[in-house]
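$ run holo --ligand "adenosine monophosphate" --emit tokens
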Amino acid sequence: MNPHSQMHAFAQAADAVAATTKKTEKIGIVSSYLKTLPVEDAAHAAVFLTGRAFPRWDERVLGVGGATLSRLVTALAGQDSAELSGVYRKHGDLGDVAEEMLHGRNTVTDTSLEEVAAAFAAIAALRVQAEKSAVLHRLFEKSSAGGVKYVIKIITGDLRIGSKESLVEEAVAQAFGRPLAAVRRANMLLGDIGETLRRSVADELAGVHFRLFHPIDFMLATPSETAAEIFDGRSGEMFVEEKYDGIRAQAHKSGNRVRIFSRTLDEVSEFPELVAPLAALPGEFIADGEILAWHGAQPLPFTQLQRRLGRKKIDLWLSQEIPVRFVVFDLLYADGELLLDVPLRERLRRMFAGQESPLLGVAAVQVCDTAELLQQAFTGSLAAGHEGIVAKDPGSLYTPGRRGQSWFKLKEPYATLDVVVTAVEYGHGKRHHVLSDYTFAVRDGERLLNVGKAYSGLTDAEILEFTEYFLNHTVLDEGYRRVVEPKVVLEVAFNNIQRSGRHESGFALRFPRIVRVRRDKTERQIDTLERVRELYGKQMTLPRALAEIP
Ligand code: AMP
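-- output --
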């Protein structure tokens, strides 16, 4: 294939993936497409098809705002922003807007995959928006409409073609005739689907080794409504831990070097005081746990911890005012040995017991072998002011990135939803100059559907911070209201759910309140329309967990 039409072919393949809902067809299209490319280009394409500019382990970020992209598209199309607004209303996606507005340009030539990869690297290395914009402008001048569309979709972080990393893994396995399990394992260890593809081509999957300081995806817990449900079809013991209300963290340690990663696999730099106690522990390891605001022998509410999050400079005063503790509940690697395939019981046995300090703790485990005991542990945890419990099968292996049938969470009997902000408005009264009213959505497949609008719950400082953020991440400025890039994840509480024609989702939350900003979650991880439907259905009956509390 002519490398100068590669992005054109990428766009055609991605369009074909988007056009079918059948997973096997999507896999077939990606697999055939990858086989047409030279290995290095296929490696770039595999990364881009997961919706990322860089491999998963790579922490570089592009930092290009929606406002910059909107300006580039209108300039290239020779149109004004009013035109863009109209088209945006139709699609709700900047990539699709670009395709429509640039329709018919460069239909023969396009950029190569290598040129797109080089542009992404250059953009990540630049700090100034205007300079990032200039790199993109040069790229877009040579691109077809489809090429621009997909570069924009990758930049905004949402490909919306139903091609996830797991699907690309399957396509790589199929394209190069390798066992899916071997491809998945290599990709989990490498954190790089492009490198996984290279190793698949070279038949070198077996030689892939784990690399310390590259984060591993987190194992997640499946929500459960009752203690009895957790014991459904299961006998024997469960390990029960408190559900700690902080931020999930994975600490890698070797010698004096310590790095801590969040659930989004980004490095957490806000808690430098945790480095020394982790470095002081013997050996090499990866510890999985939760960072909590802490006072004496007690965790503090998440709102306290939140005051230390998202700060670029560490405020020494604040770190004394709000002390933290890392409570470890799993061990994934120790002294050269990856422990993912070792049962939880054994992983916990190897944990650093007896080395606890005010900054570092190990989660207490209660062993429960009946639903009654588990229920008691749950009510006990609620009575002590915690959010609930996590029950884990002691024989289970650590399955990165999966919500399986081995970890269950039982939460407080009222539900909250994790949603993403899609539009913002100026407030009223003293808030008329800040963006304080947030319309938010849940996910339905690749679509985001609004379910409500919240006015309160954030501090004044947070509202100021988000006002600035949203001004820079507006995709459509309607004056009093701004449609924004769907990036900010909120946890909202509400009184109940109503059927409503106001939103496309068909539902509206009544009296929604922002419980917290979920900086640890991305818009891919928000709740779904299915979950809203489920909660709507349940509110007809008394919440079961509530009914069980004596
Ligand atoms: P949620 O944030 O409601 O989806 O609940 C899942 C989260 O609970 C995990 O990602 C962890 O951050 C957190 N969590 C708190 N305590 C534990 C624990 N003991 N074991 C595992 N996860 C926990």
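-- notes --
The pocket of adenosine monophosphate is lined by residues 220-221, 241, 243-244, 248, 290, 329, 363, 390, 409 (CB under 6 Å).
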